[in-house]
Amino acid sequence: GAHHYMASITCFSGQTVNVQAGVQNLHVAGITPVVGSEPGYAPQVVMVQDGAVLQVTPVCRNGDPLVTLDVHSRVTLRHPSEPSGRQPGVEVGNVPLQTATAVDRPVLHVQRLSTTTRLPMDQVKLIGGMNFAEDVEARNLYLYVMVSPSQ
Fold first, then answer.
1. Cα 47 vs. chain centroid, distance in angstroms?
2. Coil, helix or strand at residue 112
3. Per-residue pLDDT of the chain (151 residues; tens, 9 = 90+)
4. What is the pTM of this model?
5. Is 66 exposed, middle or buried (0-12, 13-18, 19+ CB in 10 A)?
6. Contact 31, 44 (CB under 8 A)
7. Is residue 105 within 8 Å of 86, Cβ to Cβ?
């Protein structure tokens, strides 16, 4: 069940670059009643990212052996929707519960790491680490970076 993500980015000094890996899922976030000859409902759909996103902005100066690196990362793990425990087809007032329970309730575990650091060239460095504390089988998540000059 371990997830591994690796990215290789080529960019210029001062250029912000963004990479993304994972799966995107559509979820019903809400329902709007539609009034007409036949009443109905219009779903409000949102995109939920399950995976990793990394954004970096390097700043290099001629002759400086260190690179200033602005780093922003986000890792999201989506767990199945919470069961509503309601019976489909049973009505509350004029609203069928099956319509009310159509709203997805995904559980999202999100980790964000943002920092600015100075790194030496051509060395792998640990930027930060964390885990999902509420998960009994929590695995640690580490962000390593290596900056290399282009030839």
1. 11
2. strand
3. 566 777 888 888 999 999 988 888 887 877 888 888 877 778 888 888 888 899 999 999 888 889 999 999 998 887 765 555 444 444 455 455 555 555 667 777 788 999 999 999 889 999 998 876 666 566 678 889 998 887 5
4. 0.69
5. middle
6. yes
7. no
